[in-house]
Amino acid sequence: MASRTALASAGCSSCRSAVLRLFAADFASPAPLSSRLAPELVLARRNRLGPTIARPYSTPARRPESSADTTGTASPLPKDVETVPSNDQHEDVSQQSSPGTPADSVPWYLQVEPPRHIATLEPPPLPPVPADGPPILSSILEYAAEELGLDELALLDLRELDPAPALGTNLFMLFGTARSERHLHVSAGRFVRWLRAKHRVHADADGLLGPNERKTKLRRKARKAKLLQIMGTDETDDGIRTGWICVNLGTIGRSGPEKANLGEDGRLTGFGTTQEGTSIVFQIMTEARRAEMNLEALWLSSLEKSRALSKPAETPALDATVQSSRAADALQTPARPTLSDGQVRKISPQQTASFSTVRANKFSASLLGRNMASPPSRVDAESASSDAEEKSRVLGLLHNFLRYGPPEEIAKATGGRPGDNAGETDFTRLYDGTTAELSPAQSWACRLTFHAKCVDINPNLAAHKAISQKLLQEMQLHGISATREQYLELLGAICRARYSDAAPSRTDLALSLLQTMHQRGQEVLANDVVVSMLDGAFSQSDATSDSPLVKYLWDLLAQTKQPCLNEKSLIHLLKASVEVPDEDYAMLWNVWELSPRHLQARSYEMYLEFFRTAMQTCDANLCGQVIRRCLLDMPHERPAVALQGRLSAALRECINVADPAAEQIVARLPPGAINDIKLTRGREFVIMLLQLNAAEQQAAL
Length: 701
Hints:
- Its main location: mitochondrion.
- It is found in: Mitochondrion inner membrane.
- This is ATPase synthesis protein 25.
- By secondary structure, this protein is an alpha+beta fold.
- Among the domains are: about 5-100, no CATH class; about 135-205 and about 240-255 and about 275-310, Beta Polymerase, domain 2 (2-Layer Sandwich), CATH 3.30.460.10; about 370-505, no CATH class.
- It is about 50% helix and about 5% strand.
- It has 32 helices and seven strands.
- The protein has helices at about 5-10, 15-25, 35, 40-50, 65-70, 85-95, 135-145, 180-200, 210-230, 285-295, 295-310, 320-330, 360-370, 380-385, 390-405, 405-415, 425-435, 440-455, 465-475, 485-495, 500-520, 525-540, 550-560, 565-575, 585-590, 595, 605-615, 620-635, 645-660, 660-670, 675-680, 685-700, and strands at about 150-160, 170-180, 205, 245-250, 260, 270-275, 280-285.
- The chain has a five-stranded mixed beta sheet with strand order 1-2-7-4-3, with helices on both faces. Strands 5-6 form a two-stranded antiparallel sheet.
- The longest helix is centred in the first third of the chain and has 21 residues, at about 210-230.
- It is elongated and about 190 Å long.
- The relative contact order is 0.03.
């Protein structure tokens, strides 16, 4: 209650009511502030609080100091009736009242964070489809990305591959990555069914397991794992998780019947028929399998190599007459190298040409009419200096002479030197001038044959090592496509050369060549490779039958269970094994007994070469052993080998080495002395000659 004196001091009833309302407020339903105050107090409050109300994006007006004096006569307001601005107004006022303050001075609860926009996830773009490609490619890519959920889609256009791959002509190859093994099989199965239902394409999916088949295999694997766990064995390869499915759509857009390949002359060429249309293959793999196989790099390298081989050489334009004459001349020299860089033609020695037109050219007539028994001359070098095509033609003739010419003429023409000028001849000058103007890929085959012949003639030259290394590096760097015969020719040249610092360098070169052969798909563990290395090991000056390399290579033939050597390899080893300086010729007899070990019969030619090889040694003891062994084995061969013709003459020469006086004794004996034991006692080879003469006389009748 207010005191009585306070109520009495207010004479006016309205004043008393105002004073009472200050102390006695209605807490249940408070009245508005404007109704509880006197009119003059309300006006004073509005004058004092009005300018302090802030509006967004505005600057509050500063009240002059004189306004305080004018409103000072009004009664002061209590603290609980003063209005407090809202939070938004506080933020605006705090930000606008100090525009020059840095953002760090603003408390964290007053800092306004920028709006956060969620980045939209856009799918990766699909690989571009060639404009002239089949329309189904776009549909396949969209379905693989949207419906199957395959990642890292890629498209390879392999239509420029020549020759066409085994997957088909005009090949398009697609690649996709699955997230797991289960996703791989599910995606491939859906893709095959979609092709069959949507495009009527019955595709073959290699490596695809159906849902029921996969579940069955997994159940069997689980049961097998329990058994293996009990038995204590571990098997990692289950045959289920391949990580790779190849979907082959076949040839799309095939129209019309198949056509045969016809050459420019109208005759059939090549094998098979020409297929029209486009082949499509989809390679679906898991991420780990795709990184391991790296098929994209493999096919791209094949495509780049095909483009490089098919790129024509830059030659001046020729008229139609010259072009037609050169096309006719191409049939005359089948061993002529091609003009494109990096291309080496595979030549068959049995290939011949006929019904060709010879150009009226002094150079062509002189070269094409020459027998390969004699090398090209200096006139050919002057004629070959005109253009690159003539140099290629001369190089082909030089190569033919080195391959098929007589050994005596080759030794005389080459001079036995690969690098120095000590044995300079017309042939070597023509050879050097021709190979210097051509690219390494064009002259590589001829230089290899020249180097191999020089090694055979004189294996002790120090330059052989550098030339072998250069030929090997050129083949690796230029990507020269060598034949297996050329690989073996280079391997034989490396192994037969006698280096002064020899063994490590020869081994490194041979291993590098074998690694290159393995990388290019050539079989390394084969008889011809071992024979080439054995030939080189036999030719070394320190070679014996107990040498580590000879024993290792010889055991390799037996332990790897290789098939029996063919007749050509056996004859080659027979000739090479004679060079091994053994007292009893153990290596020669080991080679001769290879065929019976494999239950193979020896032929007439093998007996002939065996007699000649023994005769060339001029060893009477060896010739006697060969004669005794062969005369016993020849009737038991299947078929039996008849002692006639060249074999009879070779036997006579062997008898002359085994017993030089036998021929003279036979000439002095009277007719019918073969039955006189006293005249032929102790003369084994005399009896053989008498029997041989009697057999020849009977055959002549």
